Amino acid sequence: METNLCSTPLSRQQAQQLDLHLIPGLCNRLIAEMAMRNISPHQYIPFLSELTGRAPQTVARWIDPDHPGMPDLSSLAVLSIQFGTDVGWLLGLARERAPLVQSQLPPALLSQVCPDSPACASWLPPLLAHAQAHARHPVAIMRGKDMAPLIADGAPFFYDDTVRQVEGNGVYLLRHQDKLLVRHIAIQVGSGLLLRCENAHYGATLIRDRSRQRSLEILGKVVLAINACPL
């Protein structure tokens, strides 16, 4: 259990002298949230206006490059809900991005956020929390049944694009012989690299030759897949 490192509150003078870096911290985080969603810079203002219901002139002040302003409390709460992230992160009071846990919202507010889904509090927040935990990673869509049922055809998956070589056994996004593939990769000592599908109807490929292994382009390691199974 974490404990508060400060056993006593700050004095009045210390509180007055706190440098919170709220500006331009909040501005930078709003831009980072939009960039993560592939919103182009010229669409920042229309996007924020649509997202929060605030006037374009109002949201423009939040991300003004020279003199950014702070949203009012109500707008800040809406930003937290719409981006699905904790207010502490937006304000710069947390070192790591934390997801907003919708199931902990007050019932009256939760009914507005999820008006048509009474089960929202039980199943959707954990799913969103998993996705938000990997939101810094790029997303791709699985094409084909090669990795079913682990990753279904059409399922989105997150991959860590900082992994550009085989780092132990795992599921990787890769390019091989000009084809974009998702495969289990197993290191077989003395033999080479085994590229294997999850679907048993598809064969495996053993790459023995060193030069062929070097031609294998690793694009990232798969960290999360979200499968939906229509009936």
Automatic annotation (TrEMBL):
Pfam families according to UniProt: Peptidase_S24
Residue span, Peptidase S24/S26A/S26B/S26C domain: 134-223
UniProt superkingdom: Bacteria
InterPro entries linked to this entry: LexA/Signal_pep-like_sf, Peptidase_S24_S26A/B/C
Protein's name in the database: Peptidase S24/S26A/S26B/S26C domain-containing protein
Lineage of origin: Bacteria, Pseudomonadati, Pseudomonadota, Betaproteobacteria, Burkholderiales
